[in-house]
Design brief:
Number of domains: 2
Cofactor: [4Fe-4S] cluster
Number of helices: 16
Oligomer: single chain
Order of helices and strands: EHEHEHHEHHEHEHHEEHEEEHEHHHEEHH
Strand content: 15-25%
Function: Probably acts as a heme chaperone, transferring heme to an unknown acceptor. Binds one molecule of heme per monomer, possibly covalently. Binds 1 [4Fe-4S] cluster. The cluster is coordinated with 3 cysteines and an exchangeable S-adenosyl-L-methionine.
Number of strands: 14
Main location: cytoplasm
Pfam families: HemN_C, Radical_SAM
Bound molecules: iron/sulfur cluster
Keywords: 4Fe-4S, Chaperone, Cytoplasm, Heme, Iron, Iron-sulfur, Metal-binding, S-adenosyl-L-methionine
Length: 391
């Protein structure tokens, strides 16, 4: 096992290098039955207490990454649109104080389309948010009820209009391949999605995650998930239609007009560094993997005790980093440069060339000079391909 060459003492040499910031807001009004994110329902949330805790956690990360150039902030959750705009504003202002800020810094906030939250979009934009990612999930009331969503299809459309008025850059999520999904029903939804004028859409297949209410329901045969063949046909249709509409996939589930990709998410997938603050947030700093306490109350206690919410901080070996970079990079349509990545991570090689050759022969991978990328059919089998080609 090789270890990463990056050490904290090289910090001074990294002044001006890009850094992305992820901020996790862990609260939701209710728990969706498919959700395995770190989200919690609480009767009340003390906004001031949370603002102070997140600011302290952020200050801890910033002190370890001095002089960096902030390229993006992403407020994820949970439901960060439940934050008071003043809380988001304080975090954005603190990040601007801690770091140099890129002129085109991207500041995204994930939002749910309930009326009360949509009413905050203009204030969030005034606070500095310049991109909204809206959890529409479906255009159909029966599907929204099945997904346990707290908004109607009409509310979703109104929230989308409010988001488009508030900020220039809007994305929304849809979940497809529900148990009763047909090619016809998804085709109609997709046509509607691609006609709404956003620069970016995230289209996720419903997956049954362990520990969720849906997992229990499937175990009790309350419903059967859509089969793999039908799901694959819907995935292929999605690739074709989005490409025709000028929003091709740049990642397995993410589609954008060229240039409108989520810069923040690209930083993850291109295996760049990012600071992660807030409950359950992960980060990648100076060759270390950082993880925060997941449960909100434990996070607050840790911040009160230690001045930060870290529960784990571990130096990645070169091999671990190489594997992570491979897993992330092959999600992207642009692919990876294995030799350049291996050099950046201080490992001899990233992939097993013989096995890569086999995967190219089978049509799952494609090589273009120094670039290795998955084909559309390969992206459907990504986990198996990764297990096969990792060096
Ligand atoms: S709103 Fe989002 S984070 Fe919250 S429970 Fe539903 S899917 Fe999970």
């Amino acid at each position: 096992m090789s270890t990463l060459a990056i050490r904290p003492e090289v910090n001074a040499a990294r002044t001006g290098e890009a850094i992305a910031l992820y901020v996790h807001w862990p609260f939701c009004v209710s728990k969706c039955p498919y959700c395995d994110f770190n989200s919690h329902v609480r009767a009340s949330v003390d906004q001031e207490e949370w603002r102070d805790a997140l600011l302290a956690d952020l200050a801890h990360e910033a002190a370890l990454l001095p002089g960096r150039r902030l390229t993006s902030i992403f407020f994820g959750g949970g439901t960060p649109s439940l934050m008071e705009p003043a809380t988001a504003e304080a975090i954005i202002a603190a990040a601007r104080d801690h770091w140099l800020v890129a002129d085109d810094v991207e500041i995204t906030l994930e939002a749910n389309p309930n009326n009360a939250e949509a009413a905050r979009f203009a204030d969030l934009a005034s606070a500095g948010v310049n991109r909204i990612s809206l959890g529409l999930q479906s255009f159909d009331d029966a599907s929204l009820a099945f997904l346990g969503r707290a908004h109607s299809a009409d509310e979703g459309m109104r929230a989308l209009e409010a988001a488009q008025l508030a900020v220039d850059r809007v994305s929304f999520d849809l979940i497809y391949a529900l148990p009763d999904e047909t090619e016809e029903s998804w085709q109609v939804a997709l046509a509607k999605a691609l006609g709404l004028g956003t620069e970016h859409v995230s289209l996720y297949q419903l997956t049954i995650e362990p520990g969720t209410r849906f997992a229990t329901m499937v175990a009790k045969h309350d419903f059967e998930p859509l089969g793999p063949e039908a799901s694959a046909a819907l995935f292929e249709m999605t690739q074709d239609r989005t490409t025709m509409a000028g929003l091709p996939a740049y990642e397995i589930s993410n589609h954008a007009r060229p240039g409108a990709e989520s810069r923040h998410n690209l930083a993850y997938w291109r295996y760049h560094e990012y600071a992660g603050v807030g409950p359950g947030a992960h980060g990648r700093r100076l060759g270390m993997r950082t993880v925060r306490h997941r449960k909100p109350e434990n996070f607050l206690s840790a911040v009160a005790r230690n001045g930060h919410g870290l529960i784990e901080e571990e130096r990645l070996t070169g091999d671990e980093a190489a594997n992570e970079a491979l897993v992330m990079g092959l999600r992207l349509a642009e692919g990876i440069e294995p030799a350049a990545l291996a050099e950046r991570l201080g490992v001899e090689r990233l992939v097993n060339e013989d096995r890569v050759g086999r995967m190219i022969g089978l049509g799952f991978l494609d090589r273009d000079e120094t670039i290795l990328r998955t084909t559309a059919s390969g992206r459907l089998l990504l986990d198996s391909i990764l297990a096969e080609i990792a060096a």
